[in-house]
Design a protein that fits this description.
The chain contains eight helices and nine strands. Helix 3 runs antiparallel to helix 6 and helix 6 packs across helix 7. The relative contact order is 0.13. It is found in: Cell inner membrane. Pfam families: T2SSK, T2SSK_1st.
Length: 342
């Protein structure tokens, strides 16, 4: 083979190699673009499915809230038909909804089986917020009444916290509001306001941490105290014995236990009925204790596959009007803690 022939063969081989390399590059680019397009389409489908599931879950929880409002409305109608108005733990609203498959609620007729519905489970409860001591009681007037300070000290002790924490909570709460807070014109707590001293006014119990109260202390106090938009009386029909003993001056846990035992047999219809269970010199002020409630917390939980969506709503009942004054929603994976409590 001559030198010229060799050169021609080498050039032809190089051209073939370059063509093969170019073809491989083109195939790689096409495959990369195709994979990118498939991934984008997959992400778009996943995003759309997540948005649809979120919207559907939100509407389901709204429906559960409307259901709870209906239950409270029927209870209010019953109180109007048979006065005096009372709220106790033997009523329908106090019975929690155990976790149930959503399809059992959605089945339109008997031809639709429970297995035809989505794999979603709904549960919920209604809690009387006036079963707890309202921290609004320490915000009124130029000075805190001694009985209110003593009540909060007792509750701190019941929560296994130092009684000195009561003074810290009172001082920081009053400092954040600057003066006695006023209810908004529409009755709703609204957004937190910033007073002249620069601190933030909390609108629920969880926000006490903004004032430097330890989160662990807030959680321990949660079964006993609450922060509502306006002052309220503690409902003796629903309050735990620790709250009953704390809010009634000179009452002991044994006295509170008698009230709890009596109401388990028959509801307390008047304060006079409760007074007969206490020492003779006990004073029951209607501003501090009562037998009916206006504020309730509705909790709805929707479990869908590995995710749990929880919504907490505060309802104020004024006559036959059910007003949602606050709503909090939190989402979590089932192996993670749920946050966003009110």
């Amino acid at each position: 083979m001559t030198t010229v022939q060799r050169r021609r063969l080498s050039a032809l081989t190089g051209e073939r190699g370059a063509a093969l390399l170019t073809a491989m590059i083109i195939v790689t680019l096409v495959a990369s673009l195709a994979a990118g397009m498939v991934w984008q389409q997959y992400r778009a489908v996943q995003t759309e499915a997540a948005d649809r599931a979120r919207a559907q879950s939100g509407w389901i929880l709204v429906g559960a809230l409307d259901w709870a409002r209906r239950i409270l409305l029927e209870d209010a109608k019953g109180d109007q038909e048979k006065p005096p108005a009372t709220d106790h733990l033997g009523e329908v609203w106090a019975v929690p909804l155990a976790e149930s498959r959503l399809s059992t609620f959605l089945a339109a007729d008997r031809t639709v089986g429970a297995d035809d519905g989505p794999e979603a489970f709904l549960s919920g409860s209604i809690v009387d917020l006036q079963s707890r001591y309202n921290l609004r009681a320490v915000l009124g007037g130029d000075k805190v009444a001694p009985v209110e300070r003593q009540t909060l000290e007792r509750l701190c002790q019941s929560a296994q916290l130092p009684s000195s924490l009561a003074s810290v909570i009172i001082d920081r709460l009053r400092g954040s509001f600057g003066s006695a807070p006023r209810e908004a014109a529409d009755g709703k707590p609204g957004s937190p306001a910033v007073p002249p001293d620069g601190s933030v006014q909390p609108i629920n119990l969880s926000q006490l941490t903004w004032l430097g109260i330890p989160a662990d202390a807030v959680e321990r106090l949660r079964p006993f105290v609450v922060l509502l938009p306006r002052p309220t009386a503690v409902n003796l029909n629903t309050a735990p014995r620790e709250v009953v003993a704390a809010v009634i001056d000179k009452a002991s846990l044994a006295d509170a236990e008698r009230i709890v035992q009596e109401r388990s047999r028959t509801r307390l219809r008047t304060l006079e009925q409760a007074k007969r269970l206490l020492p003779p010199d006990t004073d029951l002020s209607p501003d501090r204790v009562g037998v009916a409630s206006s504020f309730f917390e509705v909790t709805g939980r929707l479990r869908l596959e590995e995710r749990l969506l929880e919504q907490r709503s505060i309802i104020e009942r004024r006559g036959l009007e059910m007003r949602v004054i606050a709503r909090y929603r939190a989402s979590q994976l089932l192996d993670q803690p749920l946050g966003g409590r009110s």
